[in-house]
Design goal:
The complex is a heterodimer of chains A (265) and B (293).
Chain A: H1 6-35, H2 51-57, H3 60-91, H4 95-110, H5 113-123, H6 135-160, H7 163-171, H8 176-204, H9 208-213, H10 221-230, H11 234-264
Chain B: H1 2-32, H2 50-57, H3 59-92, H4 98-110, H5 114-124, H6 129-138, H7 151-174, H8 179-187, H9 192-220, H10 224-229, H11 237-247, H12 251-284
Helix pairs in contact in B: 1-12, 2-12, 3-7, 3-9, 4-7, 7-9, 8-9, 9-12, 11-12
């Protein structure tokens, strides 16, 4: 109703396509196209090959992919545990303390990721906690960076939750632990899985803090992609990027299946 | 007594956050005022502002600060304009597959930023589509486009990557606009542009402010795009921190830059939170709160 005439509507569609396609659709497509190529000096890539994917299947890239998935899983679980715990506990605090806890858990978003990496490097390169050079420091960094998102989405879900359920459960004599385990957490399950999906995706693509702290035997995929493009192997880097995107999408898809199944309950 | 017990439940996650986030940050601040350390020991001598004086006097720091602010401001303006246009079209012009586009934007946000720079290399790089088309068409030895290793390349990548961050809150705000108002304005003879300006935009202004300030913070702290651009003359604050700490091993200098970066970023993030809380108030204003009944 905003655009009365057909031609004007067409013109706007055209404007949309001209802006949207080259900026958003094309980047993802060219990465996929480049991952199957050996050269790109004309309008289209040349030298179709599967060699880049064969290289991923064994050696360092596969190791990097597994490293990334393990890191992302561990960091997501840690972030979800801490974020959910804090959100649940904060609900029972006074309004002022609750705001302080909320701000504390939001703070990692406001601090640059590179600085989070630097701070872990400074703190854990000296006793009492010597973690520099271990996989744990990478997992801790990722967990710190994604906890805010888990905390935020669980807090938002808790605010929307109808208190009548837990009140009736408590009125029927259920203990607090029982209410939490059988009433609250099942009701929260959709937002918990959404939060874990977000955390996983963010951790899979994390580069800034990782560049500061990764040890040589725990190299996540984004660092491997940077190493490939930095030495000029753009096409191998593209194949690694496709592997990164595909793994993220598959895991997100799997998580959204849990979500739909949970919503049937 | 019960309150104490309840507060105890909040203690473990806060303590964990303190150990892996607040304590390291405090050490960064401490290190930034501790000159002449041998390595990373935070104990030698008393605190002094000498490291700040040294770093602030470096031209590399001033250049990085100027670069960071200019690129972030430019990218924010670009993302706001582009996001506004795209969101307006998606929300108010009937478009086949509009919902699928919303999905696509969500997927786009799940990918890391440096992929955009990688993609731009294949689009506008010395090899790649745009220059390839040019050389195919004209027979020239090389194409005309060679801007990816300049600040413009970083700017283009950041605008591309961060536009969806503006579009999402805008689309949410547009879905709240009362279509009756639009129809009333149209039937009274208002032109589409006037409807956008006087009816839709005031409604979307808080979301625009929120999206814009979020993008500004994210651009200030962007590292992956700048790293992948790989240009020597495009150094931003996060890049400077990385260079100082990892390549030069100058932890005190890196910590000084980090403190400056944190201050900038936290201040802007506080601004963003105020903008967000404004939108929340304006949207639920007058509606009684159900929780806590």
């Amino acid at each position: 109703m905003l655009v009365p005439s057909k031609p004007a509507c067409r013109a706007l569609h055209l404007l949309f396509l001209v802006l949207f396609l080259p900026l958003f659709a094309l980047p993802l497509l060219v990465i996929v196209a480049a991952s199957f190529a050996t050269g790109w000096s004309g309008a289209l890539p040349s030298g179709p090959t599967l060699a880049h994917y064969r290289d991923i299947a064994h050696g360092d890239p596969l190791h990097a992919l597994i490293t990334s998935v393990l890191t992302a899983l561990a960091a997501s679980v840690a972030a979800l545990t801490a974020g959910t715990w804090a959100a649940l506990a904060a609900q029972r605090l006074g309004p002022r303390t609750r705001r302080v806890v909320g701000t504390l858990f939001l703070l990692p978003v406001a601090v640059p990721s590179v600085v989070v990496g630097l701070s872990l490097l400074v703190a854990f390169s000296q006793p009492p906690l010597l973690l520099n050079g271990t996989p744990q420091i990478v997992i801790i960094a990722h967990a710190v960076l994604v906890t805010a998102f888990a905390h935020q989405s669980v807090t938002a879900a808790l605010d929307r939750l109808d208190p009548a359920y837990e009140q009736s459960a408590a009125a029927l004599g259920a203990r607090p632990g029982h209410v939490l385990w059988r009433v609250k957490l099942p009701l929260l399950l959709p937002s918990l899985t959404a939060a874990v999906g977000l955390c996983f995706a963010l951790s899979m693509g994390e580069l800034s803090a990782t560049m500061m702290i990764y040890p040589p035997d725990w190299v996540p995929l984004p660092v491997q992609i940077f190493a490939a493009t930095d030495r000029g192997s753009l096409f191998a880097g593209a194949a690694l990027a496709v592997a990164l995107m595909a793994t993220t999408l598959i895991v997100l898809l799997g998580i959204s299946r849990i979500r739909t199944r949970a919503s049937y309950r | 007594m019960r309150r104490m017990r309840r507060a105890c439940w909040a203690l473990p996650p806060v303590a964990a956050l303190g150990l892996v986030f607040l304590y390291p940050l405090a050490l960064v601040v401490w290190q930034s005022v501790s000159p002449d350390d041998g390595g990373t020991s935070a104990s030698g001598g008393g605190p002094s502002l000498a490291p700040y004086a040294a770093v602030l006097a470096e031209t590399s720091f001033r250049d990085a600060l100027a670069n960071t602010v200019l690129i972030a401001a430019g990218a924010t303006v670009g993302a706001l304009l582009l996001g506004l246009v795209l969101a307006l079209i998606i929300a108010f012009v009937p478009l086949p597959g509009g919902r699928a586009l919303g999905r696509f934007v969500d997927i786009f946000l799940a990918f890391p930023s440096f992929l955009i720079t990688l993609a731009l290399l294949f689009l506008y790089g010395t090899v790649g589509i745009a220059n390839g088309l040019w050389t195919d068409a004209t027979g020239a030895a090389s194409g005309p486009l060679d801007f990816l290793h300049t600040p413009w390349g970083v700017l283009l990548a950041e605008v591309t990557y961060f536009t969806p961050f503006v579009m999402r809150p805008l689309l949410a705000a547009f879905s709240q606009v009362d279509t009756g108002q639009l129809e009333a304005a149209a039937s009274l003879g208002a032109r589409p542009w006037r409807i956008v300006r006087t009816v839709i935009l005031p409604e979307a202004l808080p979301s625009l402010a929120a999206g814009g300030s979020l993008v500004l913070v994210l651009c200030l702290n962007e590292f992956g795009i700048v790293l992948f651009t790989g240009a020597k003359d495009v150094v931003t604050l996060p890049m400077l921190i990385y260079t100082k700490a990892i390549l030069d091993g100058d932890y005190t200098g890196a910590c000084v830059v980090a403190v400056v970066n944190i201050a900038l970023s936290v201040a802007l993030y506080a601004l963003y939170r105020t903008a967000v809380s404004r939108t929340a108030v304006s949207r639920t204003g007058g509606v009684p709160h159900r929780a806590g009944a």
